[in-house]
Amino acid sequence: MLARLFRADAPSVHAHVAWEDLPDEALPTPPLCDGYGKAHLPVTTQVPLAQAYFDQGLRLLHLGWALEARRAFAEAARQDPSLAMAWWGLALARGAGARFAAERAEAIRKALQLAEGVTDLEQRLVVAASLLVDKGPANGRHAFVREMEFLVDRFPEEPEPRLLLAGFLLDGYESDGRPGQGQPYAQSLLRDLLRTHPDHAGVHVAWVQAWLPSARPETACASAEALPLLVPAGSPALLAAGRLLLRMGRAVEANRILEAAVEADDAYLDRESLPLEVAPSADTALRLLSEGCAEVGRYREAQKWARKLRQRVEAAGAGPQAVLFAATTLVAAHLRFGFCRAAAEVPMELDDTATVAEQGLRDAVRLYARAACALETGRLGDVERACQVLDTLVLTLSDAPRSEGRALCPRDVARTTEVAAQELRGTLDARRGDSGRAEAALTRALRLERRLRPVGPALFCRPPRETLARVRLHSGREEKALELALERAGERPGCGHCMLLVAEAHVACECMSEAERDFAVVLDLWRDADPHLPGLQRARGFASRGRGGAALRRVPDAVVDTVPAPRGGEGPWTVHGA
User: Fold this and answer.
1) Where are the alpha helices (DSSP H) in 403-533?
2) Given 96, 136, 173, 471, which residue has the most CB atoms within 10 angstroms?
3) Tens digits of residue pLDDT in 68-87
4) Does this model's pTM top 0.70?
5) Would you kindly state where each structural domain of the chain is located, as residue ranges?
């Protein structure tokens, strides 16, 4: 999808991939494979293999798998050096940014030179791409869209121009829920394509991406369910499908698809004897598997997936960024259940090659987790000092130069750290009994969280909205707490932690029938949860006492659960219920 290719690279587990810096002509030849969809665009060539490799590149382009799309387009160019569309594909697969501007320019120059004598559709696709390459996706946007609209009008039965245009226009949603520029237009194009080309895998991938960041992800549910059948080898598509189902609360189906994404990547690596860092989706899928298990109360399994990611990283001999991403996945699993001591003791040692951003993120995560431990034991002075150090770290990272490509950007780390610092500050003020200052800090954390760039590192603190809701429960603002809890649960309908918060807010509001229903939902969501989770014990306690459960009419004193966990999170799971 062009929208993904022409945005800034999201920081992946691996900061560098070996093939990224290889010139197109030096890329290894890929095999022709099934399982990537059936997209086909006839191009001007007399070489059947060139057409086959071009189609494979096109299918991979729709999946957003740029590196493998480049290999296919490069092989199409080797099979037929006069194939203009092969160079068109090479230019688009390079994406945006200054790193590969020269390579993009050279590829599109060759495509323009070879475009004389090809079909009108091919010529105009090349010209449209040249507008993006020459002017960039921002300055060339209008001209590119107008050229593609002409193609859509000229070739109404051809799906590729419409899909490419829709893929470019997808722009997500703003923090207040407003669609980005071009988003409704893209969704309209895709809706028509779903009707006319229901078996086109690229259309379903784009449809999932169109609704994934929205308030209505269920709109693309059918596409998410169809993708494992349409593109069983396309792990980026499986990753998108699993992510959408996870957002909808369908953790079982999501985990099945995410595991399939890991298996597809491993099969791809084994087939071609490739290094682990080339896999496009496995590492992110493992992180999502850990997150999904945490939402349905499976603490041990969440740790299992996080440790599997760490083992994978260590087996690859990866750099500091990969080590850090794996470690923070385990930290997040511990923090989600309130086991701060275990989070604080997760090893995060980095070597001397660590960048400013990597060192900053490690220090921020350590400070936050240790401060959360200090909060549990009442060492409020230590928490205050941690907040001050985090504030200083934010300023230092904000002044550092930006990074490019897959590497962590210091300013993105600064934004994430600032959210964590404000959440910690709000929790500290609440513990001191200053609910006004606590609300101010947590409201600021919430606003900062909404402005986080999607390409930044994952948030490593407790969700600010949940913390704010608990603070409001303690300060006697039950109705406002319930409103916030319901909003959070609406975003994560399958998260037992969110529904538990809603249930406890209903108890505080003395809405016992609603609380009874909510606790039943929690028990259903956590039906396979680890048996001694404190939240699960509270839900079972309400169910056993019934609607008159007076012991649950009062919100627990702690902002988070403070049940002890195994040191370092590495030992056997021996947590006992509250």
Assistant:
1) 410-431, 435-450, 464-474, 478-491, 496-508, 512-525
2) 471
3) 999 999 999 999 999 999 99
4) yes
5) 1-9+38-206, 275-353, 355-475, 477-552
